[in-house]
Amino acid sequence: MCAQSETASLTSSAPLPAPAPDCTPGTLDPSDWRTFRAHAHRLLDDILDYTQHIRKRPVWQPSPESVRGRFRQPLPSKPADLEYLHDVFMHEILPYTVGNAHPGFMGWVHGGGTPIGMLAEMLAAGLNANLGGRDHIPIEVERQVLGWVRELFHFPESASGLFVTGTSTANLIAVLVARTHALGAAVRRQGIPAEGKRLVAYTSACAHGSIAQALDLAGLGRDALHRIPVNGHFQIDLEALEKAIALDRRAGLAPFFIAATAGTVDVGAIDNLHGVAAIAQRERVWFHVDGAYGALGMLAPEIAPRLVGIERADSLAFDFHKWGQVPYDAGFVLVRDSRLHQSTFASPAAYLRRETRGLAAGSPWPCDFGPDLSRGFRALKTWFTIAAFGSERLGDMIANTCRLAQYLKQQVEREPCLELLAPVVLNIVCFRFRCGQADEVNREVVADLQESGMVAPSSTVVNGCLAIRAAIVNHRTDRTDIDRLVRATVAFGSARAAAQANAGRS
Could you read off the pLDDT of 412-446 as tens digits, one per residue? Predict the structure, then answer.
């Protein structure tokens, strides 16, 4: 059902390490730059070939134990040459990745990346710039992206922002800034007083688990997060939210943080951001938006109206590496009050002394707004992506993934043996194969689809039912991939249901 054998043929035993090339004495640079340059071009050609012809490969395939064993070896004491390392990569790493660059990958919300972003990542690695601070242009590139982000989300020019690994870290930063807002900067020295305010936060029952994790890491405890029920559209119930806040205040608790979601991980729902913002403003509670992938819908004119209210957030977390197609990783946090943001993280030290001229100028530094002093040049691949494609083309790509989701919805509704389990708001479609013991059958169907190499959805639970979850994020995905998913689901589901029926009769 798939060209698995084509990739499997690459799994022959890798050769033994050849002698390492000579290096320039006292360095790790090659002594023969011409030979090294030629091999570097081969590496580049191979990874470009992989991307160009990716449809000929399976989305994903299991890793043989012989390949896994390659990466359970002791620490090497002797060098290996680039030819050998290249061979290991091509034969034993490249064929066994998660597959999110493939147009048939529809599991979880992973971006597909682009050749432009790949080249930018290579350039960033060549510069090896540390964006923790100091006065150099890479930081200006990050500030340029911050300016674009402020413009996109209609935040003031005084808002601060920072590249991070992903939305999980961005959510944590937002919680920490909100904690400082509630308890004052002294909390950084004294900790959370045992007999002081007991802070509580709110999010929907469909919110991502990183919100609870952020409360945990901030020292407030997961029990401080109150999950609010959702309505029939899987949005946070505003009336229930207001009642929960009022009840907590009467109990002597201190509401300090509300996290709304723009694109829930299960079904892609968008909370009523305007409504949540109004409640947060009325209750004087920090309003945060977890927009891990959905926030970038602001780039698409047909989607942006659904995000009304996002501009009122006190903080916003999202990922460029999802809908933005920037290579992993490229998360971002945006904070309306830059002074409060800086007071939450700035840590003066003699070795970080700031000057008005020279390399130590340029204050404030990015390390004043987050926990990392050592930071990679994530901004370059993001700047390249936005500059190369422009906001209009990126917005159209995002809108197209939503159009494909609607097409999948239509195909599901046309198949009598398939059932839609949730509204299709953005680019996530949750459905299942109809049969007896549906959860068991659909769990097996998801694994069957993944192991076929044709398409790779994931699963979730919607209203107590196990669902096949197709998240259409990759810019390479088209209708042929959707049709393949539907046909394969019907075929595997029918086979599993028949086997189940036969087992019941025996």
Answer: 999 999 999 999 999 999 999 999 899 999 999 99
Residues 166 and 262 in one domain: yes
Strand order in the sheet with 331-335: 160-164, 331-335, 315-319, 286-290, 254-261, 199-204, 225-228
Gap between the Cα atoms of 262 and 246, Å rounded: 25
Q: Domain check: are 27 and 157 in the same one? A: no
- CATH code of residue 434: 3.90.1150.170
Q: What is the CATH number of the domain that holds 220?
A: 3.40.640.10
Over residues 300-317, the pLDDT tens digits come to 999 999 999 999 999 999
Summarize pLDDT for 37-76 with one digit per residue, the tens. Answer: 999 999 999 999 999 999 999 999 999 999 999 999 999 9
Same domain, 327 and 450: no
- Give DSSP secondary structure letters for 319-363: ETTTTT-PPS--EEEEES-HHHHHHHH----GGG---SSSTT-SP
How many domains would you assign to the chain?
A: 3
Q: Residue 307 sits in which domain range? A: 136-350+359-376
Q: CA separation (Å) from 207 to 36, 176, 210, 285, 377?
A: 49, 18, 8, 18, 30
Find tokens 């923790």 and name the residue.
132
- 482's tokens: 């959707």
Please indicate, yes or no, if residue 421 is contained in any of the structural domains: yes
Question: DSSP readout, 44-95?
Answer: HHHHHHHHHTGGGS-S--PPPHHHHHHTSPPPP-S---HHHHHHHIIIIIGG
